[in-house]
Automatic annotation (TrEMBL):
Signal peptide segment: 1-21
Organism per entry: Microthyrium microscopicum
Keyword Signal: yes
Protein name as it appears in the record: Ecp2 effector protein domain-containing protein
UniProt keyword terms in alphabetical order: Signal
């Protein structure tokens, strides 16, 4: 994965969000400790930044298929302000970025949902970015692959 400087992105909120699991397992009456589940909690979504160019329809479609096909999670160490390029075809790329000072983990399902939100608001072949409350950002932008 390529590391890209995290420039030109503005995050609107500095909120923390997590859903706490029930402290008691009702089936086994066992205590559950430190269980949290993150879900996509959008705080901003912007489209058509001139400096990010335009994606191709084919690149957009391949990125969507790729992201929806991934299983598991993506983890980013805290403290650095970089982005990972996680998809790139037909000069259309998807970057995952974090400015959270702590390590964060998101499911690929969350990443795919965030990419879908960009498509829903911005349209296919338009660039965009969406950020969630724990300082995690998905960017769709034109770049050489």
């Amino acid at each position: 994965m390529a590391l890209v400087p995290y420039k030109g992105l503005i995050l609107i909120a500095l909120l923390a969000h997590s859903t706490q699991a029930s402290p008691i397992d009702t089936e086994n009456k066992a205590e559950a400790h430190n269980l949290t589940m993150k879900t996509y909690n959008p705080v901003s979504l912007t489209c058509d930044k001139p400096e990010w160019g335009h994606l191709t329809a084919r690149g957009w479609s391949e990125a969507r298929d790729h992201l929806h096909g991934l299983k598991g999670t993506w983890t980013k160490p805290g403290g650095d302000a970089t982005c990972d390029r996680v998809s790139c075809s037909w000069d259309s790329a998807v970057f995952l970025c974090s400015t959270n000072p702590n390590e964060i983990t998101h499911s690929w399902s969350d990443v795919a949902d965030m990419f879908d939100a960009i498509e829903s608001k911005c349209g296919i072949a338009h660039n965009g970015q969406t950020s969630d409350a724990d300082l995690f950002t998905v960017i769709a932008a034109e770049t050489r692959c």
